[in-house]
Amino acid sequence: MKKLKTIILKIFKWTGIAVVTVLFLMFIIPVLFPGTISKQVKSFANKHLAGELDYKKTHLTFFRHFPSLTVSVDDLLLKGSKPFQKDTLLAAKEVSVGINLKNLIFDGEVKIDEIYVTDAVANVFVNTKGQANYNVYVSKPSEKPKDSTESGASIKLDLIKFKNWNVKYHDLSARVLVDAKGLNYTGEGGLSEDVFDLQTDLDINKLDFSLDRIYYAKQKTLHADLITRINTDALTFVLRKNELRINELPLKFTGFLSILKDGYDLDIKAASEKTTIRDMISVLPPQYLEWAKDTKIQGNSDLFFSLKGKFSEARNLKPNLNARLLVKEGFVSNAKAPVPMNNLNMDLNVALPALNTDILTIDLKNLSFDLGKNNSFRAVVKTKGLDEILVNAKIKGAVNLQTLDDALGLNEIDMKGFIDTDIQSNGIFNLDKKLFPKTKGYFNLKNGWLKTSYYPNAIQNINILANVSNTDGTFKSLGVKLDPFKFDFEGNPVFINAELQNFEDLLYKVRAKGTLNVGRIYKVFAKKGFDVSGLIMADLSLKGRQSYATTGQYSKLDNKGTLILKNIKATTETLPKSFFIREGNFEFENEKMWFRKFFANYGKSDFALNGHLLNTINYFIERKGTLHGKFNLNSKYILVDEFMALKSGDNSKKSIDVEYAKVENPNSSGVVVIPKNLDVSLGVNARKVEFQGLGLNNVKGTASVNSGQVYLKNTTFDIIGSRMGIDARYQDESPLTANYDVAVKVQDFNVQRAYKEIDMIKEVATSAKDVKGIVSIDYKLKGDFDKNMNPIYPSLEGGGVINLRDVEVKNLKMLSAVGNGIGSKGFNDPDMKGVDIETHIKNNLIHVDKFTFKVSVLRPSVSGTTSFNGLLDLLVRIGLPPGGWIGLPVVVTGTHEKPKIKFLSKNGQGITEALYNKKINKVIRQEQRAEKKTRRQQRLDKKAQEAKAKSAEKQIDKNLKK
Cα dist. 360→14, 211, 322, 353 in Å? Predict the structure, then answer.
């Protein structure tokens, strides 16, 4: 017994010594090695990270991620790779790397084998060109022989652990968005090996996934238990064990993913077999999940999904997608329901070869359910294609809406009425070829009633009887009859009767009457963002044939009636803000739709229109119809800046081009995008128009919008005290670029005021800062706007004449330098009154035709080339008395600020043109001083440049006349 006590005491003793030693080492090692570790880790980061890295504090401890010795960094911020150097890629409260203790103690080397990241936000972004912000890790092979004595940090990972991440992956090239909040991830395996198995445990609290702006998952929980075999040499991922759970729906994945130089090669199969309908419903949007809790749901479901093939934007390759959803023997019932929804069955198949929607196949082999006696629904629908759709459909059913409402136990909507439908359709639908499937059928809703929890009053007495028929598969035999469509809302009855025949040359007969409170209708359906209480009042009778309007047989049309809009808010996908129509009174008179009163606001801008649109019926019928019209437009104030596509505003339904342009250029305004389906002329009378801080007053003239271009003709306005005349053409190329032609005439222009108030004058006429007085301008220019709707100066082409009517030119450095060279102070204050200066612009060069002025008894003349960046290549001929017959040649080179003078010489040094690519709106090369050439070659180069500039000026005339 005594011996046993001794042994136990020794065990405790040595255990205590071991514990104390370990604790001592845990405290002493961070003290002994902090310099080595911090220096080597920082050196590693600087060598291998292309993005900017910043952090506040560093720690070396065992206690943050016991028992690992970790280097921890607090408040880390990592910026993206080019061209996203200013954008945050990763921000984290703590980033820790685990250090291999054996290598540190015995070899003095820092080997990183674990990574921990806590409370992080990651923004992964790929733009429309395929450029990504995550290429921050750079591995550069050394050109020097390896020094075996040099030590440094290296990575040999066995563990990655992420805690509480928010990750956003936005790929504009593939139109994919993944937004994961509350992500926790643990990955274990020999991550530094060439081939290894990565064991993954992943949990996400809220997951959103969208493709092409359509959300397929919204606020879903996700759990993943994965084993993935990774081959780092071939960049291949083989899915060995991959079990996912989205909400309550289990999914199993198999297959592989290989990363190619220009894309991916993948073969992924997913299945959720032998699950229940309730599990399947759990992946629906969150608003439907509360309903499912209180509803009895039974039945089986199966889901299959596959994605196979190569994805490469460069080679235009995309994988094939296939999916199938099966629902069998479904049963849905609420406690209040007199009868349940029974025999719910669905067999839906989707095939999307090469992700090409033009050959999309949707095969609904069966959708059916029963709601007791005489209440059943059956549908079989198969379609192939999108622009040209092959259709084969049979839909038949008779359903009591109140019974359906009760069976489903819908809480936020109450329905009544009886729907009866029987439609059969077989054939091709193609708008361009005017094909329509052979169809026969009807849809009948009687005594409908609809109320939601969002609005206290119901839409009542809803009756719809629609018949459709087509006998030969063309638009010619297509007939649609709507008699009646009527309902009551807020005590106001609304009815529409319509009979349409022969859609190749539509014969129409439409009667509509009623008052509709649009704002309240939107509230019924909980539509947000419609914050005005708008009214539509109609009393219309439209009768005629489409060809009567297009062939000018207006007497055969019988269109009459009125349409009144009040306080209506409307948006278009290319404008950042909404139009607010305060009042719109429209009168239909055969081929014309008259705007009797039309008052609208757009932001700070106001508009009053009167005039008419032609052929509005045909516009709504034709797929690519164009609205024609003639109006007078009056306005107190128009702010052009508000119309720029990327400006901030309340419109949330912008086009995908505008939306992605804004994502890639968050600080840009974009350009004004013009509708392509308008052919409208406008007599304009605007008190003030403002653009980029430049105010135009009393604007009067003619404007027209045609095929996406705006034209100004014989338009005048007051600017900085002068009356200016302008002809112009404007056309957008994308939300970020536009082009224009402009011809300007202005009399009695104050040079100094123009130089101070108009930025373009500073760029086009840099020497104007040394000129005081009055000038006249007759000038033509064409060019491009950049993504902030500023002129791109290397794109400018054109020319014209500036008349120095009554000016003072003092201390112009170029002339002063010439005067100093010959001892004449008169060049500091020359007499240039009445002088015409003709110039031509192209490729950032300004070619000056010869002009002559007076300096005392001398007659200097100037010609040559200068540039927007201030380079000079001018020839000054100083005409000596009497009459200036004998001249002293002087070459001026250098710059406007530092001119260089060479007397008794005609041999200057040319300026090489800038290179500008019109297709991509980009300056390839700025203008620069030319290499020294022979005098003859200089003359030839200069002559060619001037010829191109004059040709561009002539082209402006052609564009404006066209």
Answer: 74, 15, 10, 7
Pairing of strands 915-917, 507-517: unpaired
Q: Are strands 678-691 and 638-639 parallel, antiparallel or unpaired?
A: parallel
Q: How confident is the model at residue 687 (pLDDT cuts 50, 70, 90)?
A: very high
User: Which pLDDT score, from 0 to 100, does residue 131 have?
Assistant: 83
Q: Which two tokens stand for residue 201?
A: 């445990």
Asked if the model's pLDDT at residue 22 lies above 60, the reply is no
Structure tokens at 277: 């309908």
For residues 415 and 403, the answer to whether their CB atoms sit within 8 Å is no
Report whether 539 contacts 562 (CB < 8 A). yes
| 904-925 residue pLDDT tens | 888 888 899 999 988 888 898 9
Q: Which pLDDT belongs to residue 24?
A: 43
- Residue in the structure block whose two tokens are 């006696």: 373
Give the position of tokens 């409402």.
405
The answer to whether 114 and 68 have CB atoms below 8 angstroms apart is: yes
Q: Which residue has the tokens 């200068």?
A: 866
What is the rounded distance in angstroms from the CA atom of residue 463 to the CA atom of residue 943?
Answer: 78
Is the pLDDT at 27 greater than 50, yes or no? no
What's the rounded Cα separation, in Å, for the pair 779 and 953? 9
Answer whether 502's CB lies under 8 Å from 478's CB. Answer: yes
Type and span of the H or E element at 280? helix 277-281
Which of 227-233's residues contact partners 24+ apart within 8 Å by CB, and which partners?
Answer: 227/197, 227/198, 227/199, 227/200, 228/197, 228/198, 228/200, 229/195, 229/196, 229/197, 229/198, 230/189, 230/195, 230/196, 230/197, 230/198, 231/194, 231/195, 232/193, 232/194, 232/195, 233/194, 233/195
DSSP secondary-structure letter at 132? B
Tokens of 108: 């003095």
Q: How large a percentage of the chain has pLDDT more than 70?
A: 86
pLDDT, one tens digit per residue, over 841-884 is: 999 999 999 999 999 888 999 999 999 888 999 999 998 888 77
Residues in contact with 240: Cβ distance below 8 Å, sequence separation at least 6, in sequence order? 197, 227, 228, 229
CB 75 within 8 A of CB 31: no
Q: Which residue has the tokens 């219309």?
A: 540
Selection from 581, 582, 585 nearest residue 564 by Cα: 585
pLDDT of residue 41: 56
Find the radius of gyration of the CA atoms of the chain: 38
Alpha-carbon gap, residue 826 to 855, rounded angstroms: 6
Instruction: Round to whole Å and give the CA distance between 290 and 298.
Output: 17
pLDDT digits (tens, 9 = 90+) for 592-637: 999 999 999 999 999 999 999 987 877 777 766 788 899 999 999 9
Closest CA to 417 of 405, 397, 396, 401: 401
- Residues 6 or more apart whose CB falls under 8 angstroms from that of 838 comprise 799, 800, 801, 848, 849, 851
Token duo for residue 618: 């045909």
**Cα(569)–Cα(586) distance, integer angstroms:** 17
CB atoms within 10 A of CB 689: 19
**Local structure of 328: helix, strand or coil:** strand
**Do residues 99 and 77 lie in contact, with contact meaning Cβ atoms separated by under 8 Å?**
no
146: CB partners within 8 A, 6+ apart:
none
Q: Output DSSP code: residue 897.
A: S
Residues 6 or more apart from 878 whose CB is under 8 A from it?
818, 822, 858, 859, 860, 887, 888, 889, 890
User: Residue 106 has what pLDDT?
Assistant: 46
Please write down the HEC assignment for all residues of 680-740: EEEEEEEEEEEECCEEEEEEEEEEEEECCEEEEEEEEEEECCEEEEEEEEEEEEECCEEEE
How far apart, in whole angstroms, are the C-alpha atoms of residue 208 and residue 206?
A: 7
Quick one: which H or E segment has residue 656?
helix 656-664
Average pLDDT for residues 308-320, to the nearest whole number? 85
DSSP per-residue string spanning 97-116: EEE-HHIIIII---EEEEEE
Task: Determine the average pLDDT of the residues in 377-398.
Answer: 93
Please give the structure tokens belonging to residue 427: 């054939």
